[in-house]
């Protein structure tokens, strides 16, 4: 009881800040990844080399990356958002790219045969057919970003990480849980929302087929 | 209408089209035929620029297509691809309406076209137009594939084995329908098939290809009278075989939907399968698909246990015949044995199908009263 009296307001702010980081960076990451994924799928022979190089970035620990960005940009929310967006890119990029390459050549040929231009083929055939895979990528990105956003507190920029860090520093389990539980719930809710989104985006004819 | 001049296409080092030249007049029904891999699909795709040959020229309507805008060119040429290729993310109506939509037809026009076309192949608009391709049978999908190519009434239609997956009945209906349409709308059709009967029935002219070259281009009558080489003669003989009863083989009469199971399947699964399919015996096969024998529901009861695999029960040696065996011999065997059917085997001892007494009766009725199918 007294816990909420003391920390209630701060917790709510922290959740809002956390959510804000996640939504902004996933949105930015998603758009960038989608565009990159489409571009790379047009040049599969180069993409075979580019994709593994990009995946190396993925292995740089988040703390290092956010730390370096902090040195250059300083203690502003953009530091967090850029860092998180960069990490959000990869799962979507990979799934967009493979999803597009997995579209059976017969559909692309049929589309051409029907007099569809390359752009029409992309938007009306390839992307819809790749959409289940892209949505899966988006879900992964979102879930990861919720947990990575904890790092924001490391450079003093709030979010649920604040509770976790203070909790660890002061050996207060209540505070750790106050940071961890809402972020777990946030991950679950966001991934459910993405399922709902998928229901609108993934064409009906593909359900059950995948 | 369509003219090839010394067209040559290579994939890597292999020459797929070797100096092909021919001329197709407007309104002609041309059938491309030849063994698998001889370059039929490649020829077809060169016409709508899905494939670009290295050498030679192709003219459509007098225009050199290498100078045409491919997207515009393709909207004037209907195309039925060999793998059907209906878009799974679109409904049947959206699939059929694809080209008309590109050509800015109104919604109501598209609906009318879809409805008319679907009626033509006996598919109800109300029932199917809003379904997705995966909800249709292979044969129905193939029909829609043909309709999609016809939707914007293009003057030229290319069809790559469009009736491959159809049962003989539907195939015959659609063949008639295509011929009727072509005569009525004066379409130029280039049609690929493996089936010489189909070629003889449909074609104004047949182009016979082998190893990327045209062996003969002739009317069906000419080709029947003077086949240019042994391969063509062979193709012709195979197709005419079906009209001479003494040449019929077991394969011509068998049902290919006989239900077979691997030895390792459990007895319970097998009895369930029999119950579901309303059959009282199953064909048993080895892991390599070779035939073992048959097991009846009686054998299962005698065995007692329903646990374990079906392979534990000793199978019956049902009578068998080779797919190429004379049909009359197969019938004799069936008649003289006590078994309910003959199991027809391929050369490699895998199961090809079965001939039951019903198949036999149908065959006899056919010869007495004409085609019963
Ligand atoms: N994209 C490709 N790359 C390399 N080789 C190809 C390609 N497409 C076709 N080929 C080869 O070209 C030859 C002709 O192919 P094509 O598809 O035209 O044959 P087809 O007569 O249509 O055969 P089928 O009756 O089996 O459909 C074949 O040997 C095939 O393996
Ligand atoms: Mg082919």
UniProtKB/TrEMBL annotation, chain A:
It is found in: Cell membrane; Membrane. Keywords: Membrane, Transmembrane, Transmembrane helix, Transport. CDD domains: TM_PBP2 (cd06261). Residues 15-198 form the ABC transmembrane type-1 domain. The chain crosses the membrane at residues 15-40, 49-70, 76-93, 148-169, 175-202. Belongs to the binding-protein-dependent transport system permease family. This is ABC transporter permease subunit. It comes from Acetobacterium tundrae.
TrEMBL record, chain B:
Its EC number is 7.6.2.9. It is a peripheral membrane protein. Belongs to the ABC transporter superfamily. InterPro entries: AAA+_ATPase, ABC_transporter-like_ATP-bd, ABC_transporter-like_CS, CBS_dom, CBS_dom_sf, Gly-betaine_transp_ATP-bd, P-loop_NTPase. It is found in: Cell inner membrane. Residues 2-236 form the ABC transporter domain. The keyword Cytoplasm does not apply. It comes from Acetobacterium tundrae. SUPFAM superfamilies: CBS-domain pair, P-loop containing nucleoside triphosphate hydrolases. Keywords: ATP-binding, CBS domain, Cell inner membrane, Cell membrane, Membrane, Nucleotide-binding, Repeat, Transport. GO terms for molecular function: ATP binding. Residues 254-310 form the CBS domain. It catalyses: a quaternary ammonium(out) + ATP + H2O = a quaternary ammonium(in) + ADP + phosphate + H(+). The complex is probably composed of two ATP-binding proteins, two transmembrane proteins and a solute-binding protein. The keyword Ribonucleoprotein does not apply. This is Quaternary amine transport ATP-binding protein.
């Amino acid at each position: 009881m007294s816990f909420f009296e003391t920390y209630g307001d701060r917790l709510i702010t922290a959740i809002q800040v956390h959510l804000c980081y996640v939504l902004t960076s996933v949105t930015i990451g998603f758009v960038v990844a989608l565009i990159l994924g489409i571009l790379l799928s047009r040049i599969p022979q180069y993409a075979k080399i580019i994709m593994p190089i990009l995946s190396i970035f993925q292995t740089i620990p988040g703390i290092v990356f956010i730390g370096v960005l902090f040195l250059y940009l300083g203690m502003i929310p953009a530091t967090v958002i850029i860092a998180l967006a960069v990490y959000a890119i990869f799962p979507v990029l990979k799934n967009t790219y493979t999803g597009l390459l997995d579209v059976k050549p017969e559909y692309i040929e049929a589309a051409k045969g029907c007099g569809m231009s390359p752009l029409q083929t992309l938007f009306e055939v390839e992307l819809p057919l790749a959409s289940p895979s892209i949505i899966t990528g988006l879900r992964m990105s979102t879930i990861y970003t919720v947990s990575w956003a904890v790092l924001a507190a490391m450079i003093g920029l709030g979010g649920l990480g604040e509770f976790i860090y203070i909790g660890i520093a002061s050996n207060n389990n209540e505070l750790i849980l106050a940071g961890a539980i809402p972020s777990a719930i946030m991950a679950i809710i966001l991934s459910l929302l993405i399922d709902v989104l998928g229901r609108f985006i993934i064409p009906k004819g593909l359900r059950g087929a995948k | 209408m369509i003219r090839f001049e010394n067209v040559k296409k290579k994939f890597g080092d292999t020459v797929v089209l070797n100096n092909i030249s021919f001329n197709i007049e407007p309104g002609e029904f041309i059938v491309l035929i030849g063994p698998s891999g001889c370059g039929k699909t490649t020829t077809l795709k060169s016409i709508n620029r899905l494939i670009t040959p290295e050498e030679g020229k192709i003219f459509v309507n007098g225009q050199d297509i290498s100078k045409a805008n491919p997207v515009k060119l393709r909207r004037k040429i209907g195309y039925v691809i060999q793998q059907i290729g209906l878009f799974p993310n679109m409904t049947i109506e959206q699939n059929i309406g694809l080209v008309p939509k590109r050509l800015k037809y109104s919604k109501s026009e598209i609906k009318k076209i879809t409805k008319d076309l679907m009626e033509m192949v006996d598919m109800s608009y109300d029932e199917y137009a809003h379904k997705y391709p995966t909800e249709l049978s292979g044969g129905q999908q193939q029909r829609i594939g043909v309709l999609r190519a016809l939707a914007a009434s293009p003057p030229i239609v290319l069809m790559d084995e469009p009736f491959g997956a159809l049962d003989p009945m539907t195939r015959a209906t659609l063949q008639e329908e295509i011929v009727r349409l072509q005569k009525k709308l004066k379409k130029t059709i280039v049609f690929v098939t493996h089936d010489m009967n189909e070629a003889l029935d449909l074609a104004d002219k047949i182009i016979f290809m082998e190893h990327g070259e045209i062996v003969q281009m002739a009317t069906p009558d000419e080709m029947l009278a003077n086949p240019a080489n042994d391969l063509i003669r062979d193709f012709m003989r195979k197709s005419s075989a079906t009209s001479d009863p003494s040449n019929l083989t077991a394969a011509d009469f068998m049902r290919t939907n006989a239900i077979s199971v691997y030895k390792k399947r459990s007895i319970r699964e097998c009895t369930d399968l029999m119950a579901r399919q309303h059959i009282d015996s199953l064909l048993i096969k080895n892991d390599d698909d070779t035939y073992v024998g048959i097991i009846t529901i009686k054998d299962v009861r005698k065995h007692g246990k329903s646990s374990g695999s079906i392979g534990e029960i000793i199978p019956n040696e049902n009578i068998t015949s080779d797919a190429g065996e004379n049909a009359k011999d197969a019938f004799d065997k069936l008649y003289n044995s006590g078994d309910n059917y003959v199991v027809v085997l391929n050369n490699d001892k895998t199961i090809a199908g079965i001939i039951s007494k019903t198949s036999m009766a149908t065959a006899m009725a056919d010869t007495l009263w004409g085609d019963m199918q």
